[in-house]
Amino acid sequence: MLGERNRKVLFAVIQCYMNAPGPVGSRVVTKKFSFGLSPATIRNIMSDLEEMGYLRQPHTSAGRIPTDSGYRLYVDTLITGKDYVNDELLLELYKRLETLNKDINYFHDRASKVLSSLSNYIGIIMSPKTGMTTLNKIELLKYRKNQVAVILFTDEAMIRNKVVSIDPEISQKDLNRISGYINSEFAGFTVEEIRRIVLNEMSEERNICDSLISEALKICRNVFSSAEGDIYVSGLSEMLDLPDFCDIDRIRLLLKTIEDKHLIVELLDKISASDGTQVFIGSENPIDEMKNFSMVISTYNEGSKPVGAIGLIGPRRMNYLKAISIVDMTANYISNILLDR
Predict the structure, then answer these.
(1) pLDDT confidence of residue 229
(2) Higher pLDDT, 179 or 55
(3) Half-sphere exposure of 67 (CA within 13 A, CB side)
(4) Containing domain of residue 48, as a range?
(5) How many of the other CB atoms lie within 10 Å of CB of 340?
(6) Torsion angle of C-alpha atoms 200, 269, 256, 246, degrees rounded to 10
(7) Is 163 helix (H, G, I), strand (E, B) or coil?
(8) Is residue 76 part of a domain?
(9) What are the phi and psi torsion angles at 127 (to 5°)?
(10) Could you tell me if 270 and 259 are in contact, meaning their C-beta atoms sit under 8 angstroms apart?
(11) Among 56, 149, 151, 168, which residue has the least CB neighbours within 10 Å?
(12) Which bin fits 235, alpha (ψ -120 to 50), beta or left (φ > 0)?
């Protein structure tokens, strides 16, 4: 167990390093914090913290910087003590989000911008997985000779659009019949349930009497083939202003990782069984490509069921107090929106 005095010095080094990304010396800690300790005593404590693995010295005669283990102890203390709750930040966040929730389809994109603007990190939101949403109704509109625009309305007040290929001989009147059939058969089912039913129907080796029903099943198979949600990312320009990201190759790797949707889906699956906001610091990240960064992420729920995720991506020396507060409060806010709809 780390003694109280050592813990205070460790947290002081972390806070100094968050404010200015350079090795922190004992004199800096002495000037900024009233511990009643001499620079020599603080220097000895910092040396002990280095031996314990909480600090490291980039080069001889330099000050110390936190390790991932040091950050972990700091973050665990914040979360356990609920020290991240910030009433002023909460008020500002809710004020911005309240203007967005009238249209859930635009909410996620704009909310990711709110996350990044308040934190100066990358805001990332995954909308509810399509497979977890419940079909309210479907509309089919002839788009081109062999294409139809499919509009899905869900019970969660979301609208999804997709263009799929159809038999060019099918008319709008036929499409109206098909949408009527789908609505009567599948309204109230989740998209994932519909997908399983349709795959089962399509695999049965029998003739379907009504050719339009056959076409309806084909349309359903195309529309409901993917159960993943959309990913919204904002704030790269804010991150580029941080001194931690002068390495353009590191930024390229981050962008490639974010654009690779299955990696984010993989991360969501890893955290979906856990409650509350989680923090992955550097080497702790479950995705190898993210090990140069820290991420604060949380699922948000529809009732008790996790359906999406929100998070902030930043440098290891990110302001965890602020980031945890923003992510935690935003996740709760989105969960409440889905509960009320």
Answers:
(1) 64
(2) 55
(3) 12
(4) 4-66
(5) 8
(6) 170
(7) strand
(8) no
(9) -70, 165
(10) no
(11) 168
(12) left
pLDDT in tens, 68-125: 999 999 999 888 766 656 677 778 887 877 766 656 656 777 888 888 888 889 898 8
Residue 286 zone, left/alpha/beta (φ > 0; ψ -120 to 50; rest): alpha
Tokens read off for 55:
């600090």
The CA-CA-CA angle for residues 268, 274, 275, to 5°, reads 115
Q: Is the pLDDT of residue 303 over 80?
A: no
Under 8 Å between Cβ of 66 and 317: yes
Report residue 268: phi and psi, to 5°.
Answer: -60, -45
CB 181 within 8 A of CB 152: no
Structure confidence at residue 286 as a pLDDT band (50, 70, 90): confident
**Do 143 and 244 share a structural domain?**
no
> Residue 263 domain-assigned?
yes
CATH code of 11's domain: 1.10.10.10
pLDDT digits (tens, 9 = 90+) for 230-279: 778 888 777 777 777 766 777 777 777 776 666 766 776 667 666 678 89
Q: Residue 190 carries which DSSP code?
A: B
Q: How far apart are CA 147 and CA 144, in angstroms?
A: 5
Spatial distance between the Cα atoms of 113 and 79, rounded to a whole number of angstroms: 25
In total, how many domains does the chain have? 3
Structure tokens at 152: 């899905």
Containing 254, the helix (H) or strand (E) segment is helix 248-259
Query: Position of tokens 């935690």?
Result: 328
